Amino acid sequence: MGGRSFVIAVASALVLSAAIAAAQPKPDALTNPFANDPTALNAGRSVYTAACISCHGITGVGSDRAPALNSGNFAHGGRDDQLFQTIRGGVPGTQMPSFAKLPADDIWRLVIFVKSFSAQSGGPSTGDAKAGEALFFSDKGGCSSCHEINGRGGTAASDLSAEGVKADGLIRVGVQHSRGPDTRIVDIALRDGRKLHGVLKARDVTAVHVQLADGRYVMLDLADVTSMTDQGRAVPSDIAKRLSHEDVEDLTAYLAAHKARDLAQTAKVVPAPVLPYERIVKPAAGDWASYWGDYAGHHFSELSQINAGNVNQLQARWAAPMLGDTVMEATPLVVDGVMYMAGPPGDVAAFDARSGLQIWRFHRKQDVKNPYQINPFNKGVAVLDGRVFFGTLDNNLIALDAHTGRELWEKTISDTMAGYTITGAPLALKDKLIVGMSGGEMGIRGYLDAYDPATGKQLWRTFTIAAPGEPGGDTWAGDSWKYGGAPTWLTGSYDPETNTLIWPTGNPGPDFNPDLRKGDNLYTDSVLALDADTGKLK
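-> structure tokens emitted (538 positions)
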């Protein structure tokens, strides 16, 4: 094909793509065109019956494949236009597919029907928020025995730290427990004689998960269960007797005041440990405790159950949707049978490694996207004590409670629009979290950071491009050191005996034009030995 023909073909393709994009239904950010149409509800019910009922249930109570729709709490936004986008685009990494082939009008009507599950009359609360707080954490209210707000309370039921994003009418419905998922209480007897009583969290043909009254999460093989007896719904049945109208209004007012999870408070939470430092230094058999498996970076397991003689007999045990919206590059960590997995732009989940049942899932939407973003990947998480750590594409370093997946703290560590991003897996040390960065092609100066795992406070930053006056600073011509690259996205290794980090760096920038960066360009394409306490080059 000649050059001119190629240009014409590309131009034609661009025009066609633009025309197709323009023809795609775009939701009105303010209004649903069928909001005042009395026929829309029944029309939406027909769409729901045909496309949604098998996963979300007849009354929107949800299932093991899909969340409840009757609580008024929608993970990706509850405005009509946000629900439209979720239905049309699907949710990558989950079992929620795209319904882009549905006509836009059908989606709008479906939105109206979905929201009818949680519709409730009643205006703003007339209660006293201070009285509601006291009631929430009292024996009479009993709310905190199951629910938490900003780290205070139980974990058996939903986190109510951001309940205030709902309308007061929906909050009132939740307080009265008149709608919501059909969670059950069960009694379980085991072959070893143990008896368990708790909330049934998940079940399939091989495993069952139960959360006990003390918050512990127990994963069981069904083969070890001799009986499981349903003891009814896991919601209080005496709300109408226990709470007066004024009590309900006070609780509604208290919850309505909480619009977002307060990370200044949740950062103070100290979760029970799941992986202390000593077990990262010497991983237990069957654990994969860090990105490379151990601090030495061997990336090798000494387990012998699978070997050259039987590897050809392996069969699929379970499958689960992958996380994120691009290709998967993460190395999962496994601790005591729990697999921690990550995916871009900011997704983490915990699975039962034996059955594949999901324990929890966390999603952090990408607030800032560089238009030149070229590496939308995530290579994994770190686990230390009771926290799970990971980075997002828009440079948020986040700590989660390893037991619940609820966010504890978040720190923005760089400017996404300057070209920086986080794609690598952090490395957890005894009292530090080591975090690299990506963006060597974006005209940035690379660095390696250390943070306090408990608070997210930055402890040190070491630049991987030597500046003028520093050792190696004379290996850069002019100001080329300011944008010389040397990213640190590949997780390094660690020697506990000498307290030394061994960390690789990446390409110089620009990659293919050395005339703009004459010299040896230290410390790009190098391996650095750093003091873990200070970050100083050894």
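Residues 1-26 have pLDDT under 50 and may be disordered.
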